[in-house]
Amino acid sequence: AKSSGRDQYRFFSSELDKLARERRTLEQALRHALERDELEMHYQPRIDARTLDVVGAEALMRWTHPELGSIPPNTFIPIAEENGLIRPLGLWAMQQACGLLQRWKAQRRPLISLSVNISASQLADPALLDFLRDFTMHSGIDPQLLELEITETQLMENAGAAGQGLSALRQLGVRFSIDDFGTGYSSLAYLKRFPIDKLKIDKSFVQDLLGDTTDLAIVRAIMALGHNLGLGVVAEGVENFAIAHQLKLLGCDELQGYHFARPMRVEALEAWIDARQQQ
Ligand code: C2E
Ligand code: CA
Ligand code: CA
Ligand code: CA
């Protein structure tokens, strides 16, 4: 028994070594991803639940490494958050979204709001504040068209510093959404403390909405809470018509999910919007 315990330990420790090595490889590769042009933003439409018009799109980062292939954001974003790369990567993401709004404005395309995910440490990034100050002052684009999405866990784990950064950005007129709402620390006091505009219901409550009475109760409760606080409520992970319909009946404001569209490249997004508006 003793030796099999030792073998197991050896097994786990070699697995852990392997994981640690893979992580170091990714971390090294990520340091060069930006300069080597391996990153790209994709955009997933957000739909008005009542009119079914496109009202916005969420910017989601994609990384394709020449040898390792496509690496999911759930893998590389946490690495970037740990080693500080999230500030330059996040700033780049914001610049992409703002650049897109500017191009649409120049082309006289109808503007939709763009939501960009941000990590807590970006709230204290002077480069982000400078960039957004410049953009909101000089682009001639309504700052309300920019929505910054932050998870409640990120916000709560950094509540002190985050609050200041959030207020400074909010003064520029940009909007804030709480992402993955319901999955984090559920200290609701922060809703009073932070100037928030929207709640985004996590897809884990949405995907099984019709089959799970607990999920339904949670979604109802989030909807009531949000609306009583004067916040918009968005549901993510809407995968079929029945769920979209139910969310509309529950009073949800915006819907996002594979039922409408997957995240896609800018050109595909533009074509998708054009096709939808001609219907
Ligand atoms: P998130 O912000 O909660 O984004 C929603 C995720 O759900 C996206 O995964 C999206 O592709 C996926 N999704 C959308 N509709 C559906 C659906 O109907 N069904 C299912 N099953 N999934 C759906 P993605 O693109 O892999 O991103 C994962 C996470 O990585 C994001 O979760 C966000 O936390 C993070 N992330 C992505 N891009 C960025 C970024 O630029 N900055 C930061 N800080 N985080 C990012
Ligand atoms: Ca998000
Ligand atoms: Ca989510
Ligand atoms: Ca469930």
UniProtKB/TrEMBL annotation:
Official protein name in the record: EAL domain-containing protein
**Ranges in coiled-coil conformation:** 9-36
Give the source's domain of life in one word. Bacteria
Q: EAL domain location, by residue? A: 23-277
> What keywords does the record list, in alphabetical order?
Coiled coil, Membrane, Transmembrane, Transmembrane helix
Q: Which residues of the full protein are shown?
A: 787 to 1065 of 1076
Instruction: Name any one GO molecular function.
Output: cyclic-guanylate-specific phosphodiesterase activity
Q: Does the keyword Transit peptide apply?
A: no
User: What is the native source organism of this protein?
Assistant: Xylophilus rhododendri
Instruction: Offer a single GO CC term for the protein.
Output: membrane
Q: Which GO BP terms apply?
A: cellular response to nitric oxide; signal transduction
Is the Kinase keyword given for this protein? no
